[in-house]
């Protein structure tokens, strides 16, 4: 791994088109200093299990009444990750081929090329189309990996339909129902990112970290950004669910974060409320576990922070440093789900 993180990387978002070169043998990410190109080895987008297109399409299909506008946010993000790439031969076609298969004109495709998130724009334009039409276009584009990924949405819909079906058994005098499902239930591991930045340099560093973090993790690990949780409905319930479901809580320590946590002032906005509430939950869990840390991963974003850590669990556990310890953190998340030992 190279410790240098290219300054040009800041311009890329998860759902933004980047140039990718996929190599099979080396499972590392290399960011070349002299080029505006990210060379990714063994990272997303990855080809899924060996399935023919017909089988993958059949598994991904859902009810005919579901429209593109009904896709949940996490599946939209996953589609963007899979399709917002430069085409790679005939086996890794991107959003342009999918758009053409869905009937988009050459002018419409040309217009999408100017977008920083062409897949997201395409989904917005085709919001009234049936999801199965989108799936067929993906199949015609040869993207088996994307179809396999979309199967999770089909399974989730089946589960949601099942929760309203009555369950009658010998021990039930009345009908019962299956408990409600969560968006996290489809994933083996959930990584919750806790962060707070106010300066340009802090935002730049976090943006680089988050992009690389998502690129290096397999699809079965769901990354939830605390500050991207929808605050419009049941805000605190959603925060609590994300915290409880997280196998790993990655806390990106910046000067702004430490100042916010140490401040006695009342939070001024939803971002501050979210960060302070979750940090308090971490302190409470740490105390309840006899000061043993099981799932919190503090990441030092600025070296000077290590001399001014917040009181509590953060100063009593293993510290990771960005970018030097990036791959140690990745290995911890990928290969070590939440376990009972102190880390």
Automatic annotation (TrEMBL):
InterPro entries found in the cross-reference section: DEATH-like_dom_sf
Record organism: Mesorhabditis belari
Organism taxonomic ancestry: Eukaryota, Metazoa, Ecdysozoa, Nematoda, Chromadorea
SUPFAM superfamilies attached to this UniProt entry: DEATH domain (SSF47986)
UniProt protein name: Uncharacterized protein
